[in-house]
């Protein structure tokens, strides 16, 4: 009998080792068993200070980045609107022939619908969003006497500075036959 006991005890010790080594044979602990006392207390003072320090460093940088992105978006929108207005005015001056003897400066105002823009003289410009874009045109001689260079410049105020875009084209000064 003694032999049988030793075999049984040997087998049972081997099974205990297998259980210690193989995590698949061990039962899973309940979520609240280990470390639950520390979690129930909440955060330590050092953890709270570290989180506040991190927020104090990251938040101002993030807010500055957002401010710069919004400013860049606003500048891009203004520049795009000014380019569209300059292109429209340049096409209008060429189509009507007003560049030869018409008014070469003015302001853009919105129509009541707000969709299309038209130009008025510079005296009608105001500081509101509708009248903040102004235009001027310059006609210069070109290498060929039959051609002139027509440049339309659109300007607008932006954060205390005057911004502008200029578009140019060549126009015939005399009719071709």
- The N- to C-terminal Cα distance equals 129 Å
Fraction in helix: 40-55%
* Biggest beta-sheet profile: 5 strands, antiparallel
> What coarse outline follows from CA principal-axis ratios?
elongated
Give the beta-strand count.
Answer: 5
User: Which sequence of strands runs across the widest sheet?
Assistant: 2-1-3-4-5
Q: Please tell me the total number of domains.
A: 2
Low-confidence runs:
111-128
Strand content: 15-25%
Q: Please write the string of helix (H) and strand (E) elements.
A: HHHHEEEEE
Give the structural class.
Answer: alpha+beta
Mean pLDDT across residues: 77
Counting DSSP H or I runs of 4 or more residues, the number of helices is 4
Describe the protein in words.
The chain has 177 residues and is of the alpha+beta class. It has 2 domains: 2-40, no CATH class; 80-172, no CATH class. It is built from 4 helices and 5 strands. The protein has helices at 2-21, 36-41, 45-96, 98-101, and strands at 105-110, 117-120, 134-141, 147-158, 161-172. The chain has a 5-stranded antiparallel β-sheet. The N and C termini lie far apart (129 Å).
Layout of helices and strands:
Elements: H1 2-21, H2 36-41, H3 45-96, H4 98-101, E1 105-110, E2 117-120, E3 134-141, E4 147-158, E5 161-172
Antiparallel strand pairs: 1-2, 1-3, 3-4, 4-5
């Amino acid at each position: 009998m003694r032999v049988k006991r030793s075999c049984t005890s040997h087998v049972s010790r081997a099974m205990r080792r297998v259980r210690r080594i193989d995590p698949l044979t061990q039962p899973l602990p309940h979520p609240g068993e280990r470390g639950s006392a520390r979690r129930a207390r909440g955060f330590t003072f050092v953890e709270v200070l570290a989180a506040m320090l991190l927020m104090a460093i990251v938040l101002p940088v993030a807010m500055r980045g957002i401010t710069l992105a919004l400013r860049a978006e606003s500048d891009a929108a203004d520049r795009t609107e000014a380019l569209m207005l300059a292109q429209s005015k340049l096409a209008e001056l060429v189509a009507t022939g007003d560049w030869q003897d018409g008014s070469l400066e003015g302001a853009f105002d919105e129509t009541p619908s707000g969709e299309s823009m038209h130009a008025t003289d510079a005296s009608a410009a105001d500081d509101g969003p509708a009248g903040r874009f102004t235009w001027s045109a310059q006609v210069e001689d070109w290498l060929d006497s039959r051609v002139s260079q027509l440049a339309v410049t659109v300007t607008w105020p932006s954060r205390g500075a005057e911004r502008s875009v200029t578009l140019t084209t060549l126009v015939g000064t005399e009719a071709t036959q």
